[in-house]
Design goal:
two-stranded antiparallel ribbon, six-stranded mixed sheet, alpha/beta, 174 residues, 25% strand
Length: 174
């Protein structure tokens, strides 16, 4: 089984970018890349998706070599206008897998476990990373960047390491 990990959003050399949510100067893209890098340190056999790829490019790249028994992980940070805090993981067909990731990351980072959520409950109604890839996939919203408590944890290198440890534990448990 291959483990393939991607940080949400992208920056391209020619200036095109999707930084995700940005709060108080902290961008989702940059923080997710740091978390992914920490996961790769803990799990060196993980294959990191190039961070300049758009979602479509990520899906096409992964589908060019991934098999159904491989594990695809995409790391994001959440945002909300409501007062929300915690980790949640999205799935399209494997709630068990999403629950493993949400529980392990929330425990390791010390944020509430919001559990598994079906991707049909998202604003867009379905998530390409989950629906268009040809392997088992999960999208982990590590915490809410809009929550002052969550943000304080995830902007620190120690918080990024804790999130990565939670992801590594979830990979091992999977």
């Amino acid at each position: 089984m291959k483990v393939i990990i991607s940080g949400g959003h992208f920056y391209k050399n020619e200036g095109s970018k999707d930084p995700g949510i940005t709060v108080n100067g902290y961008s989702e893209y940059e923080l997710c890349q740091k978390i992914v890098d920490e996961v790769v340190k803990l799990y060196p056999q993980a294959i990191k998706v190039p961070n300049s790829f758009t979602l479509r490019e990520k899906i096409d790249w992964v589908n060019s070599f991934a098999h159904k028994d491989d594990l695809l992980i995409e790391v994001h940070l959440n945002g909300s206008t409501a007062d929300k805090s915690g980790c949640e993981s999205y799935f399209s067909d494997n709630a068990y897998l999403a629950n493993i990731f949400s529980r392990n990351v929330s425990t390791s980072l010390g944020v509430p476990n919001l559990g598994a959520r079906h991707d049909s409950t998202t604003y867009v109604g379905s998530l390409g990373w989950l629906r268009q890839t040809n392997a088992q996939a999960v999208l982990v919203e590590i915490c809410y960047l809009t929550s002052p408590e969550d943000r304080l944890k995830i902007i620190m290198p120690s918080g990024q390491q804790k999130a990565a440890i939670g992801i590594k534990k979830a990979i091992d448990e999977h």
